């Protein structure tokens, strides 16, 4: 057997690899708002303790078919609404017997209708679909998607809703 001689740069541990240029990030296409006759499909993935995408793009007044998929190992919820809605669910789910339930079925939790927002509960590995018309006046306030199951909000399970004008691309700055 003959020894293989390596060039000095390789023997010394110096490797120079050609750089790869990152492809430019594609712009988000304009949103075509859904209607009651043709709702726009919107996917929201819940994981242990985050949502994907990092913002939920909605157009005021549109109808969406919201697909909430739980890719995590535990039950999650997606509560969509303004700060009053998020605060109401945080208080409700922190109540005795709810925040630390005994073994068995998940306790029933509710809030007054005026601050209920939209709530979708999804068990691990499941998908829940909901057709929903976004209130036309919703863009007057900041909205959030959050999970208020005990400790999830505190672990960062919340994303903003980004309001998008009809036929426009979402503004990446929020």
Describe the structure.
The protein has helices spanning 8-11, 83-93, and strands at 40-47, 50-52, 56-58, 63-70, 76-81, 118-122, 127-133, 144-146, 158-163. With 174 residues, the chain is mainly beta. It has a 5-stranded mixed beta sheet, with helices on one face. The chain is globular. Residues 14-18 have low confidence and may be disordered.
Strand and helix map with partners:
Blueprint: H1 8-11, E1 40-47, E2 50-52, E3 56-58, E4 63-70, E5 76-81, H2 83-93, E6 118-122, E7 127-133, E8 144-146, E9 158-163
Parallel strand pairs: 1-4, 3-9
Antiparallel strand pairs: 1-2, 4-7, 5-6, 5-8, 8-9
How are the strands of the biggest sheet laid out side by side? 3-9-8-5-6
Low-confidence stretches: 14-18
Net shape: globular
Largest sheet, strands/sense/barrel: 5 strands, mixed
A few lines on this structure:
This protein is mainly beta and 174 residues long. The chain has 2 helices and 9 strands, in the order H-E-E-E-E-E-H-E-E-E-E.
List keywords for this structure.
4-stranded mixed beta sheet; 174 residues; 5-stranded mixed beta sheet; mainly beta
């Amino acid at each position: 057997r003959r020894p293989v001689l390596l060039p000095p740069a390789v023997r010394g541990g110096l490797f120079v690899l050609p750089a790869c240029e990152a492809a430019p990030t594609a712009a988000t296409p304009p949103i075509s708002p859904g209607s009651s006759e043709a709702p726009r499909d919107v996917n929201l993935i819940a994981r242990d303790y985050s949502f994907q995408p990092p913002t939920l793009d909605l157009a005021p007044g549109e109808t969406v078919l919201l697909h909430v998929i739980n890719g995590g190992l535990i039950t999650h919820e997606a509560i969509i609404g303004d700060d009053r809605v998020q605060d109401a669910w945080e208080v409700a789910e922190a109540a005795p017997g709810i925040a630390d339930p005994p073994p068995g079925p998940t306790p029933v939790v509710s809030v007054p209708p005026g601050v209920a927002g939209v709530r979708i509960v999804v068990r691990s590995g499941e998908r829940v679909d909901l057709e929903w018309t976004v209130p036309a006046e919703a863009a007057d306030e900041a909205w959030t998607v959050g999970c208020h199951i005990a400790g999830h909000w505190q672990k960062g399970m919340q994303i903003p809703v980004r309001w998008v004008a009809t036929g426009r691309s979402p503004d990446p700055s929020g």
